[in-house]
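hiii, so i know i said id send this last week but things got crazy w the move. better late than never?? heres the sequnce for the chain we talked about at the cafe, plus the structure i predicted for it. fair warning i was half asleep when i ran it
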Amino acid sequence: MIKLKTRQMIPCAFTIAALIAGLFSILKSASGDFVASAQFIMLSMILDGMDGTLARLLRGTSRFGAELDTFVDITSFGTAPAVLLYLAVLKDFGFWGILLSSVYISSGAIRLSRFRIVDPRRGQGGFLGLPITACAGWTALFVFVIYSHVLDEQMFSLSRGPVAVFFWITTVAMLFLQVSQVHYAKPTKELVMFVPSIFFVGFLFLHASVAIAAAIAMIAYGIVYVFISPMLPKHVVVEDEEEPLTAEN
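okay and structure toks below
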């Protein structure tokens, strides 16, 4: 039987909360509330970030917590956004919609499986391949903006027009980057980056104009992170020879 200390149980509680938020996202997609589904994906992302931050602050990291976190990742950032995209848009495209949804979740699963093998530091030294949260956030925020019905529905659509083309090309590019050898930093491990992200996600639950502005700002940051940051100088990258987490870490 696994015994966790209190300082290890607290981060795990946030991990479970993130997992439940991912489940709520799937349920909201099934009911047709795509805006709420997107909000829950982003909420799960914050809770998932808080568990790691608390684990480091409380010196409560553990193998159990690291394994539990993987289930959050595949549920909230692999399955939930794939279901959201399928029910919101792709179900109308028959075989191609099913194929793209399958590619979406498969890319995430491959990314996470490799992550467990080659990165025993769980991303603390950076990532090999685009982290799954980046594509999930991109998906959720774009759907949030489109289905909030604040912008021109004729121009801003995920099924036709230039915005749709831009979205799908970028999404497919991210899916390939997830399983690539491109190195990415982990900016949210620093509180100076993580704390503002909490506020920006919180803005998604406020008045529509504030929420849309926050979503667009995060989308813009995501584009920079995904396509520009890998070309910038890096001080820390993934090291395969690092010692893995232990229950005593």
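btw Residues 188 and 247 are 23 Å apart (CA to CA). thought thatd interest u
miss u guys!!
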